[in-house]
């Protein structure tokens, strides 16, 4: 299939709309990271306690997607978007009024239960309309656009904190949620016609999840994408402690350092799209896995060094994070390629497992006894090594 034919399957505006919905996740995760120290002071708890709101958010993302996936396969893609965006906006307002860390954690859980609808519907909508090669390009295009979110989110958060208190960050997220709700109403067109919808009971949903998990064409790419993506969540959970704790950065410099690594995802996503006609999808998946693993090893070696160099650590993190520009879209396209009308359920299952990896990584960080840099390096190597194993298993298959 030629590039021209693939490009005709979707418009740039459609991809930007789906990217906006998907970007709620990274915006909600990254925008308040520079505020951890300020929030810890206001709540009279440690920064690590505030950081537990990240695993709570990952839990909400994991649970919510399991609901929205089969629901969207049954009633269509648009109605769940209405509900999820409304819940996200309300929960963001509740976060702004949090009076203690436990209230914040509960509100963040609710915020994730609403915001996760975007990523489920975006994946399913792409699968509704495109074939596997077109999906790979569409996911790459979406990651390029969506990559703006983790780049700009901590910078926006840092600048908001420069003028206002941390509560303003969540007010801004509420306004973004309302804007997304308006976009759903006026610009999103239903992609799953009534005749293709699945009539699913609760029992049938459970059986459908089991059927999808038994499908090797889904299971292995899912594991590859989720495990390599787990390295990103380890980075997100540890970034404040590493940059602001180990390397003593202030809020603004932390935001720029965090954004620099996020730029790598956009860069490699762009390359992935450009070479898609010349390099096979499995080869690109392998390239991404090797880049991520190499970067994670560099970070781990720096953690063992007597005096860790910030620039070497940044280089390793750049590779470990940027490699997702190859692993993410290609693993997603392979996993979704055979799912047909159950794409919403399959998308939800993949997203749930992915954010469960983030939840697991965040919880493990609470119990690891070493310094923040070493803890992050160990977990990133573990996740990328497991992901690379899944990738090479895929490559051996015909």
**What's the main sheet like?**
none
Helix segment count? 19
Q: How much is the radius of gyration in Å?
A: 20 Å
What's the shape? globular
Which stretches are low in confidence, meaning pLDDT under 50 for 5 or more residues running?
1-7
Number of domains as seen in the coordinates:
1
The name of the CATH superfamily reads MFS general substrate transporter like domains
Structural class based on helices, strands and sheet pairing? mainly alpha
CATH class label: Mainly Alpha
| Mean pLDDT across all amino acids | 85
Second rung of CATH, namely the architecture: Up-down Bundle
Amount of beta strand: under 5%
Report the end-to-end length measured between terminal Cα atoms. 20 Å
Order of helices and strands: HHHHHHHHHHHHHHHHHHH
| CATH-defined fold name | Growth Hormone, Chain: A
Instruction: Kindly state the percentage of residues in helix.
Output: over 70%
Number of strands: 0
Describe the structure.
There is one protein chain. The chain has 398 residues and is an all-alpha fold. 82% of the residues lie in helices and 0% in strands. The protein contains 19 helices and no strands. Helix 2 crosses helix 9 (132-146) and helix 15 (281-304) packs across helix 17 (324-336). The longest helix has 31 residues, at 216-246.
């Amino acid at each position: 299939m030629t590039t021209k034919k693939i490009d005709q399957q979707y418009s740039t505006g459609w991809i930007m709309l789906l990217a906006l919905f998907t970007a709620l996740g990274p915006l909600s995760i990254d925008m308040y990271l520079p505020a951890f120290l300020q929030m810890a002071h206001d709540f009279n708890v440690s920064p690590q306690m505030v950081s537990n709101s990240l695993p709570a958010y990952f839990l909400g993302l994991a649970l919510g997607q399991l609901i929205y996936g089969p629901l969207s396969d049954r009633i269509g893609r648009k109605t769940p978007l209405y509900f999820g965006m409304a819940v996200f906006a309300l929960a963001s307002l509740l976060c702004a009024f949090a009076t203690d860390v436990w209230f914040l954690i509960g509100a963040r859980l609710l915020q994730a239960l609403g915001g996760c609808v975007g990523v489920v519907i975006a994946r399913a909508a792409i699968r509704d309309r495109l074939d596997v090669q077109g999906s790979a390009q569409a996911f790459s295009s979406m990651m390029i656009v969506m990559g703006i979110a983790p780049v700009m989110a901590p910078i926006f958060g840092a600048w908001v904190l420069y003028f206002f208190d941390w509560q303003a960050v969540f007010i801004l997220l509420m306004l973004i949620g309302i804007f997304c709700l308006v976009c759903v109403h006026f610009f999103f067109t239903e992609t799953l016609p009534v005749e293709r919808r699945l009539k699913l009971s609760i029992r049938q949903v459970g059986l459908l999840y089991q059927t999808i998990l038994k499908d090797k064409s889904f299971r292995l790419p899912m594991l590859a994408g989720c495990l390599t993506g787990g390295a990103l969540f380890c980075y997100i959970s540890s970034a404040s402690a590493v940059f602001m704790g180990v390397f003593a950065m202030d809020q603004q410099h932390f935001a720029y350092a965090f954004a620099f690594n996020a730029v790598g995802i956009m860069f490699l996503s762009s390359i992935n799209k450009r070479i898609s006609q010349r390099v096979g999808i499995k080869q690109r998946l392998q390239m991404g896995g090797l880049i991520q693993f190499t970067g994670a090893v560099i970070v781990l070696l720096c953690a063992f060094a007597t005096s860790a160099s910030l620039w070497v650590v940044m280089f390793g993190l750049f590779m470990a994070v940027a490699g997702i520009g190859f692993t993410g879209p290609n693993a997603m396209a392979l996993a979704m390629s055979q799912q047909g009308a159950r794409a919403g359920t399959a998308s939800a299952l993949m997203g749930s497992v992915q954010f469960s990896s983030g939840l697991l990584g965040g919880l493990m960080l609470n119990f690891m006894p070493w310094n923040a840099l070493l803890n992050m390096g160990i977990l990133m190597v573990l996740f990328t090594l497991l992901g690379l194993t899944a990738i090479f298993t895929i490559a051996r298959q015909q």
